[in-house]
Design a protein that fits this description.
Elements lengths: L3 H6 L4 H4 L16 H14 L5 H21 L10
Helix pairs in contact: 3-4
């Protein structure tokens, strides 16, 4: 699971493997759109024929973890409508 402290401390993390001048975009679990966008990315990756099954499966797990974290830490926040 990609957690901030782990990404920063792990030299092999996605964040640390990025080139020093490479643009990146970070989605935080606190953002109510983050999990939906991760799921959208995973679905589009499958449609586009990307064959990194482990990465795509991880994206689905991350999206679920984002939802769970947000529900735990912001229980009174409006939730996304059911799918």
């Amino acid at each position: 699971m990609a957690i901030k402290r782990d990404e920063i401390s792990n030299p092999d993390s996605c964040l640390n493997r990025a080139f020093r001048d490479e643009p990146i975009f970070v989605l935080r679990a606190k953002d109510k759109l983050a999990a939906k966008l991760v799921r959208d990315w995973a679905a589009k990756a499958v449609i586009e024929g990307h064959h990194e099954d482990a990465k795509i499966k991880a994206a689905w797990r991350y999206a679920d973890a984002m939802d769970a974290w947000r529900e735990k830490n912001f229980p009174d926040a409006p939730q996304e409508p059911p799918k």
